[in-house]
């Protein structure tokens, strides 16, 4: 009985059972030993199987067993780390995080945190709505000073409430140096742990990895 057949049986058992990996491995290892014993008992006495082959099969199965246990341990550690990170960031709920995400406009100004190119001589803020249509293009100072976007059209009328995306374009003359999403401040409403990562949910439903947040304020 070759080790490949034993591994196939292991995979089938894992797919059809709710037993833990440790239980499945233990059961399959016992089965493997029984099959190995039967193979030894029924071998041709005049042409016995080389003992090195048995040792190789046993070593291979043990290696598979160890790898499965290691993977299970790593998965458990990732879950624990994600949960720990989420617990540590629970205090972020209610505070404003800065990240390159869409902003929810409900009538109150949205703080833009521009970061133009150092050699830029002109900076534009391009605002698009949820459909991707451009609704406004504003010229900003060539500095990193925060800008309060009021959500007011050129005729002085307020723009509709909803989610808006902000892009910052840095120019040198007519040449575009950088065209990238602008960072904004948005209030954190929820902290989630997903696939080992800590996700912050912001007002309006936008989500961002905690590692992508560059600042936090009350």
Task: Describe this structure as you would to a colleague.
The chain is an alpha+beta fold and 218 residues long. It folds into two domains: 3-88; 91-217, Immunoglobulin-like (Sandwich). It has helices spanning 3-16, 21-41, 51-88; strands at 96-99, 103-105, 110-113, 122-128, 134-140, 147-149, 162-172, 175-181, 183-194, 197-202, 207-209, 215-217. Strands 1, 3, 6, 9, 10, 11 and 12 form a seven-stranded antiparallel beta sheet that branches. Strands 2, 4, 5, 7 and 8 form a five-stranded antiparallel beta sheet that branches. Strand 10 (197-202) and strand 11 form a beta hairpin. The longest helix has 38 residues, at 51-88. It is elongated. The model is unreliable at 1-17 (pLDDT under 50).
> If you average the pLDDT, what whole number results?
78
CATH class of the largest domain, please?
Answer: Mainly Beta
Q: Termini, distance in Å?
A: 66 Å
Number of domains: 2
The geometry reads as: elongated
Short summary:
Helix content is 33%, strand content 32%. With 218 residues, the protein is α+β, with helices and mostly antiparallel strands.
């Amino acid at each position: 009985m070759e080790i490949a057949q034993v591994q196939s049986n292991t995979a089938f058992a894992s797919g059809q059972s709710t037993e833990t990996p440790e239980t499945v491995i233990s059961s399959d290892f016992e089965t493997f030993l029984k099959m190995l014993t039967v193979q030894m008992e029924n071998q041709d006495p005049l042409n016995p199987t080389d003992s090195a082959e048995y040792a190789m099969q046993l070593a291979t199965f043990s290696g598979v067993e160890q790898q499965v246990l290691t993977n299970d341990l790593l998965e458990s550690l990732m879950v624990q780390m994600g949960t720990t990170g989420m617990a540590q960031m629970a205090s972020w709920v209610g505070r404003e995080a800065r990240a390159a995400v869409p902003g929810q406009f409900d009538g109150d100004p949205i703080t833009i945190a521009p970061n133009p190119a150092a050699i830029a001589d002109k900076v534009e803020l391009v605002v698009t709505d949820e459909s991707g249509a451009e609704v406004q293009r504003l010229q900003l100072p060539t500095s990193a000073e925060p800008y309060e976007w009021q959500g007011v059209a050129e005729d002085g009328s307020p723009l509709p409430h909803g989610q808006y995306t902000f892009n910052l374009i840095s120019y040198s003359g007519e040449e575009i140096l950088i065209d990238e999403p602008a960072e904004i401040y948005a209030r954190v409403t929820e902290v989630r742990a997903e696939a080992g990562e800590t996700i912050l949910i912001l007002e309006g439903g936008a989500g961002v990895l905690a590692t992508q947040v560059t600042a936090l304020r009350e």
